[in-house]
Specification:
Chain lengths: 75, 672
């Protein structure tokens, strides 16, 4: 049960058709692998956490890029 | 057990076939079998032992990603997705270039070090630091050194990282300069990545905010267009010469580029370039793996060359021990990974047990990339390999050995190869990148032979150069910026306002200082008659391995404080090996009486020379000797500090206080 719940919470939303959910899942996964911003995932996080989004999309992007600039890429 | 016994036997057979070859060509399949079977057995048994016994990973314990989930930095992430993300962050030019350079000893020493080094050292280091950071709310290596060893250790670790960053950036920039020297096709393609990245940045930030996928697809299409267009530019009577430059001119361009990339907003250049390079990195590595499996090329390089014991290699000086072990850092063990394993990755792990696959398994994959690079280099004719990786000055010194070993090709062969690759020349294209590109081009052309693979050889060669240069430039972008932040932090102790990362005078001054530091070493490498790689790559290897020693010291301290001293050998054994190897290499680079090897001996041989460049070369040699000594002193101090801490804790003179975050039950486990 815990693994199923985790998969749900780390990969995508509920209540959609499998195809749509699968497509979204792939998009989120690719964005995460490439280290790209994902505002939809942030909105989903806020919905699950039960609070309104604290950042607009532009604010989210600004914070995301600033934080990315502090990361290292290995040699 | 029968299955694992069979896998072990197959791996042993692979190593046997490699080790027992005596002059005949060996198929790359044996190398792949030996590596993959060893990785499988190590992952199944050793990493499981580390996870269960040494670290005690607990599925019921909430990770920082779960506790601090903010939908941005701290995000519980599926382990396969995080595996891809972590791999993209740790894999760079190192696992590609190091094995190519170490191929001067033959394919066997480098391969053994890549495979054994990773299972007992590199993967253990990455896994250990990931575990330590995971249990400390995702703290960085420097913070952990400060809190778990002592504040002086934290300061030393930070200083070590800054110096290492400078050498790293210089040597990576040198690889790009050597690859693009007198190469209008390569330079045009790489130059195009700058406007392409700017367009992508504007697309995803201003024009269509957040549409990163769209911008990346457009960027990738433009990149391929630039690659094809480069062939036309190279033969154009006006544009061709406009994109043909010397190493010194390219050095100035690199320095200017590094400065601009450091001061521009991240979204404008750094991020888009990072997306392009990650996309290219993952797809090309996968394609190379498949291509090698399809054509299973024979290895033309012998298992061992005379340079392994003579120590007079034309690519870099020094015998197999210790130099093979510092030449291949990334792919076997790389201290730099500790910065990633204590950076973004621990903030994204959904479950503690996932750390095994991400930390240990991610490093195994990087080692596999190193093995593929070794295969690509060793499929070249040894004569071609040495002609490409040797400067005229080094060639004179090694000509007898090369002739006796039969590692010589006629000039016409090199001219024909250069024409096939769309280059003016391939002689003395040092740095590893061009020879890797030729090897990759031949492998890709072999797979696409039905589509006119031979005719596409030049395209594949420049694709491989673009692939390498693109993520080297990404490392230069991010490295210069991180170096700038560190310098701002250090100078902030003198003038607090300097710490403000958005205060432009501070940004400009600190960026200029960092760029000037690595730019100086880059220039030094470019004008070095022996090619620069001979002095800078060992310095980079020593510094990277010493950073690994710092990480293993921190890991050992934490294990001892967690009352797991009986398992401290898992980090102590690779630490002892690394300290032995790097200190020996460092000592030889500074004090060897052989002018080809020792910085000081080389400087002494130039004193009083009529060469007008002699005073500058003498200064550079002494500077390099000073840097190597500085690395060794910093790490010696850190090891002594750590030893003191271990002794104090083990003899109960000091309480074993560790800063592990308190246990919180995972909500994911609550339903069990």
């Amino acid at each position: 049960m815990s693994k199923a719940r985790m998969r749900r919470e780390t990969e995508g939303g509920q209540g959609r058709s499998k195809a749509v959910e699968g497509g979204r899942g792939w998009r989120h996964a690719l964005r995460r692998i490439f280290g790209m911003p994902d505002y939809d995932a942030y909105l989903e996080h806020c919905r699950r956490a039960g609070h309104a989004p604290r950042l607009t999309e532009r604010e989210y992007l600004k914070e995301f890029f600033e934080s990315k600039g502090k990361g290292v890429r290995c040699c | 057990m029968l299955l694992w016994g069979g896998i072990s036997a197959l791996g042993a057979a692979g190593f046997g076939a490699l080790a027992l070859s005596r002059g005949e060509m060996v198929n790359a399949a044996w190398l792949l079998v030996a590596a993959v079977c060893t990785y499988a057995v190590a992952y199944r048994f050793y990493s499981r032992f580390l996870a269960a016994r040494v670290f005690g990973l607990d599925e019921r314990r909430a990770t920082p990603a779960e506790r601090f989930n903010n939908g941005r930095d701290f995000v519980p992430t599926n382990k396969w997705v995080l595996y891809g993300h972590h791999f993209a962050a740790i894999a760079g030019a190192g696992p590609l270039v190091g094995p190519v350079l170490a191929a001067q000893f033959g394919f066997l020493p480098g391969t053994i070090w890549l495979v054994i080094g990773v299972v007992l050292g590199g993967a253990v280091q990455d896994f250990t630091i990931l575990f330590c950071s995971l249990r400390r709310d995702g703290k960085s290596l420097g913070q952990m050194a400060k809190e778990e060893v002592n504040p002086a250790a934290g300061a030393m670790a930070m200083l070590a990282v800054l110096f290492i960053m400078i050498i790293l950036l210089a040597v990576l920039a040198l690889i790009v300069v050597n690859a693009l020297k007198a190469s209008p096709w390569g330079l045009f393609t790489i130059a195009c990545t700058i406007p392409i990245a700017l367009v992508m940045g504007w697309w995803m930030k201003v024009w269509r905010p957040g549409r990163v996928g769209e911008a990346s697809v457009a960027g990738a299409a433009l990149l391929l267009l630039a690659l094809v267009g480069g062939g036309w530019v190279a033969t154009h009577p006006t544009l061709g010469p406009a994109f043909t430059h010397t190493g010194v001119a390219l050095t100035a361009m690199m320095i200017g580029y590094g400065f601009v990339a450091s001061v521009l907003p991240v979204w404008m250049l750094l991020c888009p370039r990072d997306y392009l390079s990650t996309f290219l990195k993952i797809t090309t590595v996968l394609a190379l793996g498949v291509a090698i499996l399809v054509i299973l090329p024979p290895l033309r390089m012998p298992a061992l060359t005379p340079f392994a014991t003579l120590g007079e290699g034309p690519v870099f000086a020094g015998k197999l021990f210790p130099f093979a072990f510092i030449t291949i850092a990334c792919g076997a063990i790389s201290g730099f990974h500790a910065l990633v394993a204590s950076g973004t990755t621990p903030k994204m792990l959904a479950r503690e047990p996932d750390a095994r696959m991400i930390g240990y398994g991610g490093m195994l994959m990087e080692s596999f990339v190193g093995v593929m690079a070794m295969i690509a280099a060793c499929t070249l004719d040894p004569g071609v390999y040495f002609a490409m990786n040797t400067t005229p000055a080094a060639l004179v010194q090694a000509s007898d050995v090369l002739r006796h070993a039969g590692f010589v090709v006629p000039p016409e062969t090199m001219q024909a190869l250069a024409a096939q690759m769309g280059e003016q020349t391939l002689i003395a294209r040092t740095g590893g990148a061009p020879s890797l590109a030729v090897g990759m081009a031949q492998i890709f052309a072999g797979v696409t032979s039905g589509l006119g693979g031979k005719a596409l050889m030049a395209l594949w060669y420049h694709f491989a150069i673009m692939f390498e240069a693109l993520f080297i430039l990404t490392t230069i972008d991010t490295g210069t910026r991180v170096g700038r932040f560190m310098l701002q932090e250090i100078l902030g102790h003198v003038w607090p306002r300097f710490r403000e990362t958005s205060w432009y005078p501070s940004v400009l001054v600190s960026s200029a200082l960092v760029v000037a530091a690595w730019g100086y070493f880059l220039y030094q490498g470019v004008v070095d008659p022996l090619g620069g790689i001979n002095s800078l790559w060992p310095l980079f290897g020593i510094s990277n391995q010493l950073l690994a020693a710092v990480a293993l010291c921190v890991g050992t301290t934490i294990l001892i404080k967690l009352n797991r001293a009986r398992y401290a050998w898992v980090t102590l054994a690779p630490l002892a090996w690394l300290v032995t190897v790097t200190m020996t290499a460092g000592w030889l680079k500074v004090f060897s009486t052989d002018p080809r090897l020792g910085f000081l001996a080389h400087a002494a041989s130039l004193v009083g020379s009529a060469d007008p460049n002699a005073p500058r070369l003498v200064f550079n040699d002494r500077l390099d000797a000073g840097i190597a000594m500085l690395f060794m002193i910093i790490v010696t101090l850190l090891i002594v500090t750590s030893l003191w801490e271990w002794w104090a804790v083990l003899t109960r003179r000091k309480p074993a206080v560790t800063r592990e975050a308190p246990y919180v039950e995972s909500a994911y486990a609550a339903g069990d």
